[in-house]
Amino acid sequence: MRRKVIAGNWKMNMLPNEAIEYIESFSKLVENTKNEVILCVPYTDLFYALMNAQGTNIKIGAQNMHFEEKGAYTGEVSAKMLKSIGVEYVIIGHSERRQYFAETDETVNKKIKAAFANDLKPIVCVGETLEQREAGIAEKVITEQTRFALDGLEKEQVKKVIVAYEPIWAIGTGKTATSEDANNSIKSIRNEIKKIYGDDVADNVIIQYGGSVKSSNAKELFTTSDIDGGLVGGASLVPEEFAKIVNYDEQQ
Ligand code: 13P
After folding, report:
1. pLDDT digits (tens, 9 = 90+) for 22-52
2. Judging by beta carbons within 10 Å of its beta carbon (0-12, 13-18, 19+), is residue 166 exposed, middle or buried?
3. CB atoms within 10 A of CB 225
4. 5-250 fold
């Protein structure tokens, strides 16, 4: 049985004092869950979040990193830097980075390799646009993104990757993919991984759904056959709401 992994992506929100207050109340609300809980916070919150999450079951991730280890890359942060302060996870290839910051399948692949080289666990985002969905090429797009992203990795590394399937038309729009659609897309990603890396890897890799997840739809999404949890944007900004999502399995 695969575990459920529920990650919050705060995006460009929350000042350090807000992050500290959030973790203080959120940690009490999720202390009994058996699900894995991750908060992916802005760089400026990382240190405070790591300090305040100590002794809790909350793991901390970053939202991006550079693939080079160091050098003349003004404004960038490397995997080694993240690791050096105790960060465990990093989101790679979020659609907002692909769309606004020229992230490509190639940079995504380089970043995943650099993350592993520094013992960080990547949360790799894939997802189709509305136009691609309407043109009937969603499955082709997400399986290709997955193949490119994971190209050249060892089987044992692919097992440790978390893939987040985030249809772009569902992000921040209030439109959620139906649980059946999301599950089918995730099955096709898993199938692609199976073709390349075999049954054992495909059966173990965690694949999340992201896009307007909230407490009212989390249970339906997360109890399907292939959705192993979620990557949650807006609804992760409020501790009570995000805790309900993490504790979806306690809902009636
Ligand atoms: P929303 O949950 O706000 O739709 O964002 C999803 C997302 O992009 C998480 O990475």
Report:
1. 999 999 999 999 999 999 999 999 999 999 9
2. buried
3. 9
4. TIM Barrel (3.20.20)
Question: Kindly report the CA angle at 28 between 23 and 31, in degrees rounded to 5?
Answer: 110
Considering the entire predicted model, what is its pTM?
0.97
Measured torsion, CA atoms of residues 187, 193, 57, 16, in degrees rounded to the nearest 10: -100
Instruction: Indicate if ligand 1 lies below 6 Å from the C-beta of 166.
Output: yes
Calculate how far, in angstroms, residue 212's C-alpha sits from the geometric centre of ligand 1: 6
**Stated length of the chain:** 252
Residue boundaries of the structural domains of the chain: 5-250
Q: Which of 10, 14, 165, 166 to mutate to test the pocket of ligand 1 (most atoms within 8 A of CB)?
A: 166
| For the chain, percent of residues with pLDDT exceeding 70 | 100
pLDDT in tens, 176-212: 889 999 999 999 999 999 999 999 999 999 999 999 9
